[in-house]
Amino acid sequence: MFAVIKTGGKQYTVAANDIITIERLEGNAGDSITFGEVLFVGGENAKVGAPLVAGASVVGEIVEQVRGPKVINFKKRRRQNSKRKKGHRQHLSQVKITAINA
Predict the structure, then answer these.
(1) Are 10 and 39 in contact (CB under 8 A)?
(2) For range 20-37, the mean pLDDT
(3) DSSP code of residue 55
(4) pLDDT for 44
(5) Digit-coded pLDDT (tens) for 37-46
(6) Less Cβ around it within 10 Å: N or C end of the chain?
(7) How far from 94 is each of 6, 60, 85, CA to CA, in Å?
(8) pLDDT (average), residues 20-45
(9) Total domains, the chain
């Protein structure tokens, strides 16, 4: 059984025991989290939401709070001795999916 959930403005296909990396969620490692926005539940009895599947939820556990790879924003204006360099690291959460409730 698998499901498509929506969190952080993105959609993720998840199954039981998957570890996904998503936008940062509030909480500490070991906390349980429930995703209520389920768009699709697949398996033997597939259910498609319009836009959400009624009564469906996905339960997960926060494994750890991490930061993504560094993204460099570099701008240079040639022949004008002008350049700018900025870096950014996104805050992420790693979540282990424990159950899919249809």
Answers:
(1) no
(2) 95
(3) T
(4) 87
(5) 999 999 888 8
(6) N
(7) 15, 10, 29
(8) 94
(9) 1
